[in-house]
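Worked example 2:
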Amino acid sequence: MIRLSLNEIASIVDGTLFGEDAEVFGGVETDSRLVSAGSLFVAKPGEVTDGHNFIGSAAALGAAGVIVERRITSESIPQILVQDSVKALGLLAKEVLARVRAAGNLQVVGITGSNGKTSTKNMLRAILSEFGETIAPIESYNNEVGAPISVLKVSETTRYMVAELGAGGLGSIAYLADIIKPDIGVVLKVGLAHAGAFGGIEVTAKIKSELVQALKPENTFVYNADDGEVRAMLNLTEAQPVSFGTNPDSDFYFSNVDLSIAGTSADIHYPDGEVSRITLKILGEHQLMNSTAAIAVSEQLGLPRSEVRLALEKMELAERWRMQLTNRADGISIINDAYNASPDSMKAALQTLAHLGKSGRRTIAVLGEMAELGEFSRDAHDEIGRLVVRYNIDRLIVVGEGAKLIHMGAMFEGSWDGESIFFDSSSEALTHIREMLVPGDIVLVKSSKSANLRHLGDDLLEVQS
């Protein structure tokens, strides 16, 4: 972060400083455990606990000051009093980013979409880091707190910043876009993820389009031409359009896919007619879509094509618990993709598993609940169970009451010589899976984060004696 005085920060966030002025040079944190010397600690009320309770801890770790919604008179650390600490965080991020932009040649990329944001962000971080100092959020820091925290890590030497814009309802992406003001806006997909909270795919599309509407004519709109909801956003902006997808009409597209346990290969087609082969270590055809989006962005930034592809090919993993492949010593392969799940991402993961099974290895899908689908939940889970059967996956293990309709859908799909078993708990499922595994098996573990199957996936990495 750039250096600012507490007085300057108070002015930026429309707050009042109580205590002596000091310089902030160590970053901004909302988690007191991450505070270091010279940091600014933002005390925000939370669902579980209140940041105001940890002001003393932040002071002990060397914080220069804190932003508070109420003064804590028992603590002597300088305090900036504001009405809303989260809004103050956003105001500070917006001002810091504007100052860095004015002082240098920073390029900002904003990414949204129902699926693929984190993987594409990590791909861009891997690419851009080869060409200059790059800031990108850890994990899924993409909401009104996480995104500004990431923004506040920029400095005068930062060349690129990649931001995820997560949807939290109408106006949420517009709020984040106003903070980051992206030079390049990327929309990956509009799907049923969070549809229960938003009320349907139409509302999801409207929220995602807020990024597009924030783009100016001199900006670039990189969009998934395969997705009709995303294509429709072309009517909402005067930004320069750049498309990617699987259709040859796209500016950037991929073809001739080859998927194996060793990775994913395809031909990448460029607007000028160049065709180059790329081989990702990351599993899944859907990751080719993400990588093509990253290539399209890199092209707009003027980066050398061969070096961009090499950076992608060197990536070992898109993100922990996202199509994370581990080949055990006993010949069993575990694919842990249990950080997020929506109908689209679940289908993509199952397609990958089914394709890998064509090599003759037995395929096992361990599936949990897809959260936040609301009224769409029943049909979506039932459909996933039926897809398991249609894809000829050999075994299905369903875990947790919220996912039971996956099991029921598979059982009702008709003739299937496979087997579906339902377990209430991960521990029961783990015991059964360990007993049934034989060398050569490929196991996919997939669920939303709330189902906690990612830990079951980790447990399966251990070879039992």
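The first strand starts at residue 4 and ends at 5. The domain at 324-459 is CATH 3.90.190.20 (Protein-Tyrosine Phosphatase; Chain A).
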